[in-house]
Amino acid sequence: MAQTRPPEIEELVVTGSRVSEATVAIGTDHATATVSITSDALLSAPAGITGLKMLESLPGFNVQANDALGMYEFGNSVSVRAFNFQQIGFLLDDVPMGRSDQFGGSPIYRYVDNENLARVTASAGSGDVSLASYASLGPIVSYISRGPAEEFGGRVSYSRGSDELLRAFVRLDTGEHNGFSAFGSFSTVSGELWRGPGTIDRDHYEGQLRYRFGEGSVTFQTVHNKYFDYDSPSITKAQYAGTAGDIFGRSGRDFAYLGYIPVPGALGSAATATSLPITAAGVPYSNTNYSQYYKFAVNSREDHLYALTLKTPLGEAVDVSVTGYYEDKEGYGVSPEAYATSLANYNAERLIVPGLFAPRGIQYGLSTIDGTRKGVNANLTWRWGINTIQAGAWYEDDDYHRTQQRYNVENGHPDGAPLFNEPVHLQRNYTSNRKTLQIFVKDTISLLDDRLKVDVGFKGLDIDYEISGYRNPADFINRRTPTITDNWKDYFLPQVGAVWSVTDRDQVFASYSENMALPRGADDIFSAASPLAPGPDAEKAKNYELGVRTNRPTFNASLVAYFTKFDNRLQSFASPVPGSTTTETFFQNVGAVEAKGAEFSGQWKPELFGGKVYFNANVSYNISEFKDNFATFLIAGNKVPDFPEWLFQGGVTFEPVQGAIFNLSARTISKRYTNFTNTETTGGYTILAAYLDLGDGVDWGYLKNVKARVNVDNLLDEDYLGTISTTVNTPAFFRPGPRRTVQVTLSTEF
């Protein structure tokens, strides 16, 4: 007679801290290195922090952000193992999020509020073969929402903080009635930029309606996000150090756009901090430095997502899940263009494109985006003896439209109203389309009384791409509207893995996977050169993992070693177009990147302190290197920029009495190279953060868990360079890390 496994062991559950439940935190029973952040840990972070920035608490994830909450979209960056933000797949429940491009993509931070999440689960190297994504070269992050509650209730929070931050959140649950339940939530965030003039605003709505019947359910969910902000500039190390000769005297981490307009000086006069010489006779605002005025750098986005999910058994051994979704998006961005640049572009187009006007001064550069994304994601699970067989398919149709043009402003004045009836030159007006089909089959085989589980599966990915219209100024000048198509497919991308329960508390796991992804920034790739330039091959990756995990009453940990290689790395450089003698700059596959290293994640609640003190830590070691040279750049063996060798995230939590929690955490990152030739680096840094949570478990009449929380980020006000815009062989551009910020949050449930 076969023996059954013992009941599940006791979990370490730490409420109100950044420590998650043990089995979830270390990925028990997963054949890959899979770790999670659970709801309690998410709710201990500063209110309004983006779901992307919370990934910094997971092993291996190098997350950089322009501000303490990670709200500024163009200031975020993520790297893990050998991959960056655009090579990671993201899902919200059963909805794949597609590409993460700020222009036209669906970056995950637009679609979630932490209060509505049950957990965030990340696989740093080998996401499960059943998870749908055309962007992932291995890493997958799933955001699992908290569905409607079974009882009537809700949650309210209100926060104030540094830089005039205001954040409010409210959620209402109807409770379940005859199988029906629902929730709706709203949050709003507003504040001033910490670096320079301008504001940032976000309104966010989420809702779900669920009907449960027997063991099945139908769920409709929707997300609406409206976002507006002013930009802040990226700067070089010379600008940061104050050695760049900035005429406005800017330097350091507070280097920002101007909040005032310098007066025009005489033609050819000397420039000062408050006066700029006229550089073109009769054009007062012709000086290039007027582009530093902040009102010419803004972003606005609106995103709407709808999804309908059916989950139901088909008999005792078969379950099916089907999700259909539709997304609608629109937005715009504004950037400046100096008079001299606009004049050159105007002269290049004025005899070809009708209806253009000569530039008056500084230019209003408007980029617009809109599009729809629709798809269906389905899978079936069949339990048969020792086998659990899964099979499924995902299909998505993504349409995207982008325009870009420059307009005059009233009197050419930096604060003048844009004159949309006076276009100066046109740059883009194209549509692009991605049609994606992914299929998968996977069998999980349970052996040795369920102590050994083996996963064997594969997926197939087929991506059709098309871009049509005016992709760049050269298309307008050459009177062409090309339609360019490409296809990338591989119908056998295998994944195998195993997890062996050596004891009831200890596991060994290993995995191997192959992945393919749509070329990063496909629209930019196919817009860079003439229609004759060939498209690149898809990037491909192979990921190997070997690890151990343990789950003890007061201690749990996971340790994994990995090796990753991805081929067909993309780079833009000049070379002859195949079939001609014409030299153009376009994106090409130029080689491979390899990464190897180890990741540790652990939590400890020692009996020595009577359960009042507990610790958590993540430590990652990573070596990511280029394996090939390209063009004239001898970079083989160089480190990949923005990939630190060492990452540490750790904290201690003290709970002296019920209802009071204090946490102190540290995040350390080692130095990073900033370009491919490894001629520039930026130093490592350590950031401390703390929070004090009072009132957990305290009820007041109808109100439950009436709490006050104080969060302090960058406790010691560390001055450092965070996000890097990497380059090939020149000095990089950076975004300084945010200074110390304080936030106070009052919250309650009912």
Task: Summarize this entry quickly.
With 750 residues, the chain is mainly beta. The chain contains 6 helices and 38 strands.
How are the elements arranged and paired?
Elements: H1 22-25, E1 34-38, H2 39-43, E2 61-64, E3 77-80, E4 83-84, E5 89-92, E6 95-96, E7 117-123, E8 140-145, E9 153-161, E10 165-173, E11 180-192, E12 199-213, E13 216-230, H3 237-241, E14 263-265, E15 275-277, E16 298-313, E17 318-337, H4 339-349, E18 363-384, E19 387-409, E20 418-447, E21 452-470, H5 473-477, E22 483-501, E23 506-517, H6 522-525, E24 539-551, E25 555-567, E26 570-576, E27 583-589, E28 593-604, E29 613-626, E30 646-654, E31 660-669, E32 672-673, E33 681-682, E34 685-694, E35 704-713, E36 721-725, E37 733-736, E38 741-749
Describe the protein in words.
It is a single chain. The chain has 750 residues and is mainly beta. 5% of the residues lie in helices and 52% in strands. The strands form seven sheets. The protein has a 22-stranded antiparallel barrel. A five-stranded mixed sheet has the order 1-7-8-5-6. Strand 3 and strand 4 (83-84) form a beta hairpin. The chain is globular. The protein starts with 21 loop residues before the first helix and ends with a strand. The model is unreliable at 1-18 (pLDDT under 50).
Mean pLDDT: 92
Q: How far apart lie the N and C ends?
A: 50 Å
**What is the total tally of β strands?**
38
- What global shape is seen? globular
Helical amount: under 10%
Strand proportion? over 45%
Pick out the low-confidence regions: 1-18
CA-based gyration radius: 27 Å
Total helices: the number is 6
Sheet with most strands: 22 strands, antiparallel, barrel
Helix and strand content put the structural class at: mainly beta
